[in-house]
């Protein structure tokens, strides 16, 4: 699975996710990637999110939207909301994976509960940062 | 402070510790660096977040290292089924496609659904027909296949009896999520 989130100069957020699914999956199985609110979500009011992981768990938890909801209704910060979902809620249901998220202030979060996640970010005017493993 | 920012991911999973290849690791880092730099440039030029994520994901789909577009994994039956979604935070407009196999860049099909359809999610043949009606070209599903992905399918089918070759990627692609 691949994905991207962005905040532009006008203050607009967007998210995108694309996948080939799971190796050896049953034909017709669909995961979270194409489901708005599960594997992909963006709302200028708070956050843009793209997920990668155990699709069924991300669907059952509406992981991407859950982050927006935790920020909007519970007042959590981006870091708090993404940590809650990726490190607490997803593993309880046996899920593994991670996500990338940016809020409407330009804060970034890229948590994952697996050993690694291919990831990168770049602020306009700064050098890009790339990572694979847990720092 | 400049707030404009873009982030990308290429999947998460377990690390192939025993057979990690420095060359393969560098290939992943180079690909991620190139794609994030292009997304950054688009934002720096005043491009929209929607255009930036579309282009970043399109580039990730074109890179055979990642499980989307070219380089997608195989189903049990040895076929490809691709899914994609895009969402615009300004309006909560969203577009998505699922179970397609003849669209080169599923993210562009999802973008077309967002912009040109009253619906949010189209699947299978209907999604492909919609994409072709919206100026996306049909491709042979074999375009998405790579020898590495075929080998991964055989490993899983054979109960992982086969060993990884010496040039394994940093993350264990047999078990990588998403």
Global outline of chain B: globular
Q: How many individual helices of chain B?
A: 5
Q: Quote the average pLDDT of chain B.
A: 91
Largest pleated sheet of chain A: 4 strands, antiparallel
Low-confidence stretches of chain A: none
Largest sheet entry of chain B: 3 strands, mixed
Quote the distance from N terminus to C terminus of chain B: 34 Å
SSE topology string of chain B: EHHEEHEHH
Mean pLDDT of chain A: 97
Which protein chains make the most extensive interface, counting residues with beta carbons within 8 Å of the other chain's beta carbons? A-B, 79 and 86 residues
Terminal CA distance of chain A reads 21 Å
List the helices and strands and how they pair.
The complex is a heterodimer of chains A (135) and B (178).
Chain A: E1 2-7, E2 13-19, E3 40-42, E4 47-53, H1 55-60, H2 63-73, H3 78-92, E5 97-103, E6 108-109, E7 116-123, E8 129-133
Antiparallel strand pairs in A: 1-2, 3-4, 4-5, 5-6, 7-8
Chain B: E1 5-13, H1 22-44, H2 49-62, E2 82-88, E3 93-100, H3 106-116, E4 121-123, H4 124-133, H5 147-157
List descriptors.
heterodimer; A: 135 residues; alpha+beta; 4-stranded antiparallel beta sheet; two-stranded antiparallel sheet; B: 178 residues; 5 helices; 15% strand
């Amino acid at each position: 699975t691949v994905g991207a989130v962005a905040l532009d100069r006008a203050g607009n957020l967007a998210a995108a996710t694309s996948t080939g699914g799971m190796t050896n999956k049953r034909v017709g199985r669909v995961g979270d990637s194409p489901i708005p609110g599960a594997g992909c979500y963006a709302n200028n009011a708070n956050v843009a999110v793209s997920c990668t992981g155990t699709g069924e768990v991300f669907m059952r938890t509406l992981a991407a939207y859950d982050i927006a909801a935790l920020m909007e209704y519970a007042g959590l910060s981006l870091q708090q909301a993404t940590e809650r979902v990726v490190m607490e809620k997803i593993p309880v249901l046996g899920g593994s994976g991670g996500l990338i998220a940016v809020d409407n202030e330009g804060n970034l979060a890229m948590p994952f509960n697996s050993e690694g996640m291919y990831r990168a970010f770049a602020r306009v005017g700064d050098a890009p940062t790339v990572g694979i493993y847990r720092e | 402070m400049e707030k404009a920012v873009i982030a990308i991911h290429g999947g998460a999973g377990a690390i192939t510790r025993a057979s990690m290849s420095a060359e393969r690791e560098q290939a992943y880092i180079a690909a991620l660096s190139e794609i994030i730099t292009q997304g950054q440039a688009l934002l720096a030029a005043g491009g929209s977040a929607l255009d930036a994520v579309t282009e970043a994901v399109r580039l990730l789909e074109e890179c055979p290292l990642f499980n989307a577009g070219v380089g997608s994994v195989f189903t049990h039956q040895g076929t490809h089924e691709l899914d994609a979604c895009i969402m615009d935070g300004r309006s909560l407009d969203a577009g998505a496609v699922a179970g397609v196999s003849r669209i080169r860049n599923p993210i562009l099909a999802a973008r077309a659904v967002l912009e040109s359809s009253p619906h949010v999610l189209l699947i299978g043949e209907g999604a492909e027909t919609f994409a072709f009606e919206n100026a996306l070209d049909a491709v042979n599903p074999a375009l998405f296949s790579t020898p590495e992905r075929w080998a991964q399918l055989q490993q899983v089918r054979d109960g992982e009896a086969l060993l990884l070759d010496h040039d394994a990627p940093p993350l264990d692609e047999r078990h990588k999520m998403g």
